[in-house]
Amino acid sequence: MNMGDFFGGMFGGQGGGGGGQGGGQKQVRRPKGPNKQHEIFLRLPDFYFGKSVRFDLERQIFCSVCKGAGCVAWNTCNQCGGAGVQDQHIQIAPGMIAINRVQCGVCKGEGRSRGANCSTCEARGLVPQTKTLEVKIRAGAAVGETLVFDEVCSDHADFDKPGDVHIRIMPFEEELDLVREGKALRHVTSVSLTESLMGCKRRVKSHPAHLEGLEVDIPAGTQNGEVLCVKGLGMPSGVASEFGDLFVRVEVKVSDVERKTLETHKVLLQGIFGSVAT
Length: 278
Hints:
Blueprint lengths: L3 H8 L18 E3 L3 E7 L1 H6 L1 E12 L11 E3 L8 E9 L2 E8 L8 E3 L11 E12 L8 E4 L9 E3 L3 E7 L7 E3 L2 E9 H6 L1 E5 L9 E5 L8 E4 L15 E8 L2 H9 L1 H12 L1
Parallel strand pairs: 1-10, 2-11, 13-17
Antiparallel strand pairs: 3-8, 4-7, 5-6, 9-11, 12-13, 14-15, 16-17
């Protein structure tokens, strides 16, 4: 009687035959290995124009000679004859014998044993490899955007496929007179009271598309805290020929000279602005 399924637990057996070669037990491989995370740091012009970055990924791949086995040949297990299991006959009563099928203790259920070691990988089954990845960052790419390279991590005997490499693009810490907010660029400038009344020009030094600086008009009568919008001078939107806007916040600062002038010519200024108001 084959009562292994019934008595296997009682006698410490495994009951029934395993998978793999000859019915022996074999390790179950998971579908895909773990992913790896890397970060690339870019400057504002790199985000504005786009950039191609290459870096070397050090990884381990299956040996092409032994296909990851670590040996050049396999020998059939002499103990189980390649079955991977052995039958234990246990007499439980007169005329009644239970057959308990257990994993072969010599080959551990493989049904085979290793032959000569592979000299190419020194029996490791893996060899080192340097793989060059080219990361192409599009113009206007978002901060934190992640690019995925499928199945380029190291090979591993526990997994059917290697994991992915995730490249996250992040900004350098730079001292700029511009701040990026999505497709918008923001700039803060200070003007005197006279300049706010009469109008003036200011230069944005860090704009990626204007290496010599971008000149911005501050209209006459601009108020403290007013935000001016310059169309089309923000970041690329990702769509051809479309850009966000540049926003310039104006801070009016009254100088000591201007304060004294206001006090000295108070009556004159009241007459001027009073007549304007009426």
